[in-house]
Amino acid sequence: xxxxxxxxxxxxxxxxxxxxxxxxxxxxxxxxxxxxxxxxxxxxxxxxxxxxxxxxxxxxxxxxxxxxxxxxxxxxxxxxxxxxxxxxxxxxxxxxxxxxxxxxx
Length: 105
Fold this sequence. Notes:
Helix 1 (2-22) runs antiparallel to helix 2, helix 1 packs parallel to helix 3 (55-78) and helix 3 packs antiparallel against helix 4. The protein has helices at residues 2-22, 29-50, 55-78, 84-103. By secondary structure, the chain is an all-alpha fold. The two termini are 13 Å apart. The protein is 83% helix and 0% strand. The protein contains four helices and no strands. The mean pLDDT is 95.
């Protein structure tokens, strides 16, 4: 359950970051509200996961999920460019997340 909660926290981190991009500097009300709700919910879920997981592991996975999700959605939704070195680095982050998850058992 702790890993599901942490994954939800990471997903919510992606949600608020994407909503922030859509908010255009907090000038659009709905994306601004979604940013605030997502940010708070992400922090709440992360704090719940931290009751059962080590800080360094949980925080690294949480931010890693955020990096992966925002990179993918930035490319798909906003047509942001992604070079081969960036893809390689993101894949290394994914490998690090998997390694932390495996080593945390």
